[in-house]
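Case study 2.
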Amino acid sequence: MEVLRPSLININGRIYRKNTIKEEQYEEEEEFSYMGPPESEELVEDETCDSYIIQETDKGYRCAIDVPSVLYKYIIGKKGETRRRLEMDTKTSINIPKQGVEGQIVITGSHKAAVSSALTRVEVLVDSFRRKQPFTHFLSFPLNDPKIQEGFLKFKDQVLQQCSQDHGVEGSIFQNPAKLHLTIGTLSLLNEMEVRKACEQLQECQTFIRDIAGGKPLPLEVMGIEYMNDDPAMVDVLYAKVNVKDRSDKLQVIADQLVEHFVSVGLMVREWDRVKLHGTVMNTLFRKDSTVEDTGGAGRHTVSDREAFDARNILKKFGAYGFGEFELKNVLLSQRYSTDCTGYYSSAGSVSFS
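Prediction:
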């Protein structure tokens, strides 16, 4: 990191500089200790704290911050060490609800600046450890239209008939046809209030989605397959290519603007400059665990967990395979590890194209 050009972090619309300091370790255990700012970085506020209202009271100043209960332990620390250190450093008092009880963390102090400083440190801790939480929801374009499912099942049957002798090719690595989808981006929504907030933000995207789509469903074609890595003989993910029938970039623009919006409100972390639109049809993560969700990333699985397959014959024989055409009608906020009455993921919210 350059001293004169430090990297930045966005927390609730406020920008902080990240200054490297001595490494501090957090152990993955039930309680956590705090000996300094997380992730080996000290964050310096570039703006005054204005995300929350700091109220003047008879005894000084007070501010309440919404924090999901699953993150309380990171503010409390091992045997309360983190909270005591924060209180001592900022000369404030930090009141945290009981574990498992959703509520607000309340910070009080004699001086407004002290409360603001404590608030900033709490926000930084929350943001740092939020990033370590597994995602719970994802924005998706469903590809589970009956015609696409039928085309996928024919593809699966033909691949198993013609390529089952190829290394690693077996039925267990194929996607569940009812859950065919394109992942736009993932979210960690840690309580019902955050789910509601994500649904509200998705509704705010309705105008630009309908403007781009022309106020009607997008006619799509699912045709051709491609692989993720650079060696077709050692493939972990094989995906179907999805395009708008008129060859426009409308689907890509909608996906990119959705990510831009959710990143701007702090509900999503940007991973790439553009969304990689792909409909997974085969994934080696499914080999050992059929409940694994394919949402665009490897998650906690490492390379050693996966047994790659030889896709050369599949690509040669099915490279231009047509799965079918359909009209995409909506964007969904899908819940991870769930199933609705159609076999697709349960939806917490949606926006239609028309």
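The mean pLDDT is 87.
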